[in-house]
Amino acid sequence: MGNSNQPIKLENGHTLQTPFSLDKTQHPLKMTNGNVSKTGDLPTDSANGNNETAELDNSAISLDNSVNDGGSPRKKSDIRRRPGRRMDKTKLKRRASINGHLYLRETSSFTPPHASACSVWVTSLVTSNEVLNMLLDKYKVEMSCRSFALFVMKDNGERRRIRDDDSPLITRVMLGPHEDVAKVFIVDVAQTQEISPEVAQFVNLSLAECRAILHQYEQEELRQIRAIRQKYDDMRFYMQHKMKELRGV
């Protein structure tokens, strides 16, 4: 009988410690593909008269052929992966946005929602054209600033254009802090017209109210026409009467 825990040399150059006594001459063990196979019967214990055969479970002492970097063999359970589907690594195609505004890279254009807020840092020395250039550059608009203009729009319907040499910051301060009363909009010049305060007071009226007001204006116009005609008729009468008096003299 050999010494206990005598190492067994494997074909791949590594050694295996056996937890039992082994006689290499009578009961050699052969290592093939990481599995231990028995070529002979194990010795019987003569002291207690029991003939016990040691059976080696291949699954218990099986080794993986691959060896890690440290040189020690790895078990198959160490590299076992969890069952399940792998994550889909397909890249999602997302649309870029500018402050929440949908931006199309193919056409280099975007459509912001109506009355969406656009903010830039300005001073009282920055003119309206400079503010327009800053806004167009910030939101990647490639159109010319001449196509746009800054308008003051009030809640009563009044529209007033801010001149190119005016300061939008000073205009905003003069309008007051309440944006519900008046706001500064960047609009298309070709599609926006100014509305005077006199016209703005009728913008929010209904169609029936506008027709009633228009009827009153027509009646007032007729009265003014009759008054002017009566005035010139009276002047003609007095002039003719005076001319007759002069001829009789």
Write the layout of secondary structure elements.
Blueprint: E1 7-9, E2 15-17, E3 29-32, E4 35-38, H1 58-61, E5 97-98, E6 101-104, E7 109-110, H2 128-138, E8 148-154, E9 159-161, H3 168-175, E10 182-188, H4 197-200, H5 207-248
Antiparallel strand pairs: 1-2, 3-4, 5-6, 6-7, 8-9, 8-10
Offer a concise description of the structure.
With 249 residues, the chain is of the alpha+beta class. 28% of the residues lie in helices and 16% in strands. Strands 5-6-7 form a 3-stranded antiparallel β-sheet, with no helix packed on it. It has a 3-stranded antiparallel β-sheet with strand order 9-8-10. The chain has a two-stranded antiparallel sheet with strand order 1-2.
Describe this structure in words.
The chain is of the alpha+beta class and 249 residues long. The protein folds into 3 domains: 1-80, no CATH class; 97-200, Roll (Ubiquitin-like (UB roll)); 205-249. It is built from 5 helices and 10 strands, in the order ββββαβββαββαβαα. The chain has helices at 58-61, 128-138, 168-175, 197-200, 207-248, and strands spanning 7-9, 15-17, 29-32, 35-38, 97-98, 101-104, 109-110, 148-154, 159-161, 182-188. The strands form 4 sheets. Strands 5-6-7 form a 3-stranded antiparallel sheet, with no helix packed on it. Strands 9-8-10 form a 3-stranded antiparallel sheet. A hairpin with a 4-residue loop joins strand 8 (148-154) and strand 9. It is elongated. The termini are far apart. This is Ras association domain-containing protein 2. Residues 59-69 have a biased composition (Polar residues). InterPro entries: RA_dom, RASSF1-6, SARAH_dom, Ubiquitin-like_domsf. Residues 199-246 form the SARAH domain. Residues 118-191 form the Ras-associating domain.
